[in-house]
Design brief:
The complex is a heterodimer of chains A (73) and B (368).
Chain A lengths: L1 H20 L3 H22 L7 H12 L8
Chain B lengths: L9 H13 L6 H7 L3 H25 L5 H9 L1 H34 L5 H17 L2 H25 L17 H16 L5 H4 L9 H27 L9 H7 L2 E2 L3 E2 L2 H31 L5 H17 L4 H34 L3 H7 L1
Helix pairs in contact in B: 1-7, 1-10, 1-12, 2-8, 3-8, 3-10, 3-14, 4-5, 5-6, 5-12, 5-13, 5-14, 6-12, 6-13, 7-10, 7-12, 8-14, 10-11
The chains are: A mainly alpha (73), B mainly alpha (368).
Protein name (chain B): Spore gernimation protein
Organism (chain B): Acetivibrio mesophilus
Membrane topology (chain B): Multi-pass membrane protein
Chain lengths: 73, 368
Amino acid sequence: MIFIILIYAFIIIINVPGLLKRKEWRELTAFSILYVIALVLGLMYVLDIPIPSPMKGLQHLIVDILGIEYPQG
Amino acid sequence: MSIEKGKISSQQLLFLIAGFVQGSVLLIDFTVGLTEHQTWMVILAALAITTPVVLSYAVLAKRFPGMNLVQINDMVYGRFLGKVVSVYYIFFFLMTLSFNIRDVGELYTTFLMPDTPFVFLLVVFTATCTYAVTKGIEVLARISHLFVVTGIFILISTFIFLIDQMDFSKFLPFFELPFIRIFQGIHIVSMIPFGETVAFLIIMGCLNNTEHVVKNTFFGLLIGAVSLLIGAARNTAVLGRTQTIWTSPSFQSIRLIDIGTVLTRMDFLIGIGQTILIFLKCSLFFYVLVVAISQLLGLKSYLPLVLPLAAIEVIIAATVYQSPVDHTMITQNAGIIYSTPLVFIIPPLSLLIAKIRGLPKSERGKGT
């Protein structure tokens, strides 16, 4: 947990001061959105909360719903 | 406006493509279980099918010089539909990068460092790729030939060391497997090592001269394909049908090297070769991903997005599959099916539409 907090603090220290100084608001917004996603995923991972796999969803859509699949065996 | 200011030559593109395809040598294992001793045929067939499509990427890049895939999509399909297509590509880049990062973790925990925590390996590897991406495409392009030469050296040297253990009758019988398995094998090989070169539609926008881009793309693809072919032929000649029971036939065959009991346990060579080639592949994919997202959002620079995306990639890589078996099962079906339109349909279609609409000349004409 401490390791995760240190990494995420490091990411802010590296990026945010420069973006604020250069007044790059669009870049700061994009960074913030991705940062929040990364933080949520990181916390879910260390707290052992299951993270849904996009590929499982895709597999369900393609194989189970659309029925597109190579025959097994 | 393009995000990347750096420029690469078309000769550097050749080595980038060759290294990128070589980086998938281990991923051939996805198809070995299906196509067994006929994997070499599958690679040749996939190369023949994919070459015209990959060359269409080069022709597209030549038609839109200085523009990357996101800009081309916007111009060809319009602002709204173009962005939808670009988001589809970004999802593909995001997922494929996470699979490749995961492959490195699986390689190390299975063969080289079994006691090291999986996620630690992912973090260290992704951090290295992140550093490379922050340095820009020029730096990666300048070192790409070293990676390619190292990969070829390892392939050829291991092939020579194993010659005394090779039995070429293990390639027989030909055309024994059911057609559907061969077809699926061709689909996997044409999507994973060859089709993933669609990512170069972002990188080709950085070319300083597009004159020889088609020729260099072809030779890059050919060098990569020959490397895959040598690896597959070596594994089949040494292991025969037993290659399907190993997690990694390449590792298993190289472990059999025994030259006068002095040169043994040469599998570290595969470890080194794979690590540097997957590093090149992942760095290129990561670069493509950040540039595509930044271009889509209209940012001035991709650098602010690199670290948060690296963190996201590590978590996706660690959680997307439960096991290597799960990885293989999903890749052999949904993984290759969802990405087929991105590789085989959209770029040639973009080229056709651009030709019919006379793009980008008419767009330029409008602007002036």
